[in-house]
Automatic annotation (TrEMBL):
Keyword Membrane: yes
Protein's UniProt keywords contain Membrane: yes
Residue spans crossing the bilayer: 16-39, 351-371, 383-402, 414-436, 448-474
UniProt entry keywords in alphabetical sequence: Membrane, Transmembrane, Transmembrane helix
The protein, known as: Metallophosphoesterase
Superkingdom assignment: Bacteria
Length: 553
């Protein structure tokens, strides 16, 4: 089916190391951090409906519902997950798991930046193609969405327009009910779902606190809560203890006074599955809805939540949470990491071109300094060469993303960035020496420039990319640029989502579902039923349990 038939254009995966994307995303992130408080639409949402939602009444007292996050990337991965979520039932390791009556999206419904066109082609279109119309043989499912950081880059404008603008809104066969970027849903058997929008970890705004305080009036001591957050701050607080403060505040001030127990915390943002648990709470990260895979080898064997080092004076009592499972596992993640030498050049041709251009200019500057008649000091500090060396140093250090000096372990980012820069400077020096051994540099101008651009540039660009790949592999062992190691590869396989079931007796069963290989070739079905998926996988998608079902009572 072509885009005219589908109503959207299937998109390729985002090339996360593309130079213009790196620049634009970096600028958007900077603007969101600097001016987010002034453009924060959460404060304005107080004028919208403040109702919570009741999905507790079912014919049999039970409820199936799904959780997916980080989904709006390349079509094949996003649609593979959407297709499985849309089917009436999934056969998983011999068990039939019915489709969820609720579909909850945990954040980053579009990449790389929020826009109407981005949502249409990367999220809404694929999900509409997976479930075009409400099911004819069952209740129409409802969709709720929590914004992630990428949804926030336009100040939530496109997110609110898509998910919260209309009472009769829908995305394909899923109807939308929410009126704000956060929501509370009453579930069967004394369960509640609270989804808080505390993006960028700054604070939870007063209108939002008021909304949840009103919803909490209906929560009692016998109730249990699933708390959704945009990011797994319980993991991120290991390096930045204050990251968890807003979540801890919400639990202490809004949920704990009701007497209810917060039994599950779930989030996306990190593009893998991981679970930590204590005797009374599960901490689950599940960000495998379609975006590039992120490795799990750096996950600690235990978390202390909240971190004792947080400056919050009235924090909750710190408790240990033991690591239970991850997908992929650490060994599989390490194996995938070695693909960086192959995948980074093939997935990011613009990055190769950028490095080739930088090295060509550096080589020409070094050649000019070496061939001149000036003294050695003047040659080394000639303006063009100095400018290129400063560019390499600054770019490499910025790429390592050094945090503030008051953050723990900040020095490793500086050291890694400088070592990466010195490696490229050494490569440039070696390339200059080789260039001077060849006859091209003695040709009449602009002959040397043409040969440098046509021959030297592509070769040195590929070699420089391999240097960066080696840097990413080594730096990741000290938890520097781990995200870039995998983002640069754009691994589409190893996707995940949660299918959950509340039984009539109140037991919550969480089924973590993994997909080892996504589908990349699809067969159109234009004559199918109105609620049937428009495209079917040519090779069967095989979902499996990541780990045994998790029982929460």
């Amino acid at each position: 089916m072509n885009p005219q038939e589908l109503g959207f254009t299937p998109q390729r995966p985002v090339g996360w190391l593309a130079p213009l994307l790196l620049l634009s995303t970096g600028l958007r992130t900077l603007l969101a951090v600097l001016f987010g408080a002034y453009l924060d639409k959460r404060e304005l949402q107080n004028a919208l409906d403040g109702d919570w939602f009741d999905h507790s009444q079912t014919a049999d007292g039970e409820l199936w519902f799904d959780y997916v996050a980080d989904l709006g990337d390349g079509f094949n991965a996003t649609y593979s997950v959407a297709y499985l979520l849309a089917q009436p039932s999934l056969e998983v390791d011999g068990a039939a798991l019915p489709r969820g009556r609720l579909l909850v999206m945990g954040g980053d419904q579009v990449y790389p930046l929020a826009s109407g066109d981005g949502y249409e082609s990367r999220m809404k279109g694929p999900y509409r193609a997976a479930l075009p119309e409400p099911p004819t043989s069952s209740t129409q499912p409802t969709l709720f969405a929590l914004p992630g950081n990428h949804d926030w880059y336009d100040g939530l404008t496109a997110f609110i327009r898509l998910f919260a603008r209309r009472r009769d809104g829908h995305i394909g066969g899923w109807r939308t009910e929410q009126r704000r970027s956060y929501f509370a849903v009453k579930l069967p058997a004394n369960w509640w779902l609270f989804a808080i929008d505390e993006q960028f970890g700054a604070y939870i705004d007063d209108p939002q606190l008021g909304y949840f305080e009103e919803a909490a009036r209906h929560v009692g001591p016998d109730d249990r809560v699933i708390l959704m957050t945009p990011s797994p701050k319980w993991v991120k607080s290991v390096d930045n203890p204050e990251q968890y403060d807003a979540i801890d505040y919400f639990i202490r001030k809004t949920l704990d006074p009701t007497g209810a127990s917060t039994r599950v915390l779930v989030s996306g943002d990190l593009h893998h599955y991981a679970r930590y648990s204590s005797a009374d709470r599960e901490l689950i990260t599940c960000g495998g809805g379609g975006a590039y895979l992120l490795g799990t080898q750096q996950l600690p064997p235990e978390l202390i939540v909240p971190q004792p080092d947080t400056l919050t004076r009235n924090r909750s009592i710190s408790k240990p949470y033991a690591f239970q499972s991850s997908y992929p596992d650490a060994a599989g993640s390490k194996r995938m990491a070695w693909g960086v030498f192959r995948r980074v050049p093939t997935r990011n041709p613009g990055f190769v071109t950028m490095l080739g251009l930088i090295h060509v200019l550096t080589m020409l500057a070094m050649t000019g300094a070496a061939a001149g008649n000036a003294g050695i000091v003047q040659r080394l500090f000639s303006i063009p060469l100095a400018a290129m060396l400063v560019l390499i140093l600054a770019g490499s250090v910025a790429f390592a993303q050094p945090p503030k000096a008051d953050k723990p372990k900040h020095a490793r980012h500086w050291i890694a960035g400088l070592l990466h820069a010195f490696a490229h400077i050494a490569l440039a020096a070696g390339g200059t020496w080789l260039w001077l051994q060849l006859p091209f540099h003695d040709w009449m101008w602009p002959g040397p420039l043409v040969v440098a651009a046509v021959v030297y540039g592509p070769v040195i660009g590929f070699v420089a990319t391999q240097v960066t790949a080696l840097y990413l592999l080594i730096a990741s062992t000290v938890d520097v640029n781990l995200n870039e190691l995998y983002a640069g590869q754009g691994i589409e396989d190893a996707k995940s989502f949660l299918r959950m079931h509340i039984a009539a007796d109140g037991t919550l069963t969480i089924h973590p579902i993994g997909i080892d290989k996504i589908c990349r070739k699809w067969t159109p079905d234009p004559g199918g039923a109105p609620d049937a998926s428009w495209l079917h996988p040519r090779d069967p998608l095989v979902p499996h349990r990541i780990e045994a079902p998790i029982k929460v009572r």
